[in-house]
Amino acid sequence: MSTAASATNSTLLRAFALLEEILAEERGITAAELCQRLDVPKPTIHRLIGQLEQEGLLQKEPDGRYLAPGPRLRRMALGVLAHRSVGAARRAVLQRLADELGETCNLTLLDGHELVYFERVETNWPVRIQLHPGSRMPLHCTASGKLFLAMMPVHQRKALLSTLSLVAHTENTITDRGQLEQELDKIAAQALSTDNEELIEGMVALAVPIYDDVGQVRAAVAVHAPTIRKPLASLTEWAPALRRAALQLEKVLDL
Asked: The whole model's pTM is what?
């Protein structure tokens, strides 16, 4: 192998190693920490960060200190999850859950400052809320969105919240940051989140986290229903079923 080819391979391996470290740290990671973990000189780390940032593979968090997956890397991750090798098994878990609960069930993901409805199984009720796969929703007024915010490291949550516009979608939408912080603390303590008609009037939802093998939240499984069939007061009865489905999805997604 030529010297040039060897140098290229070395750079690629370092870039992959850097991205792996960033993906492994839910709280985010700094350039200084990457230098220590990878035993790579500081100028090299900063050069790699600049190149990967330019390509959209990583980005700086709002505080400017921590690094996080960039939009291009997040799209690649969504593509992996959408691959048919895991799609059928993933959908089968959601189908069983929807059959058990009798309401629409979703696999949701965090993408930057938005929630993505990645996969869903509808029911046949004449009255149901239709949100198509790929739909993007705000974080502050959805069960899954609040769950993702709640389960983040505190510094990451505060940085992300500072960038969000807490727009009111219904009378129940939480638009006060202090009140939302209190709500998120409660959600984090239970690892369980609800949407009390905060996004759509007449719709309630429940969400639980899906963890990876080191205990970081990578996705969520959620169910939503019209209040005429399932009032909020009884919604948490479905929590055990959602947690069972979350465990099954962890295995299917090999997180």
From this structure: 0.73
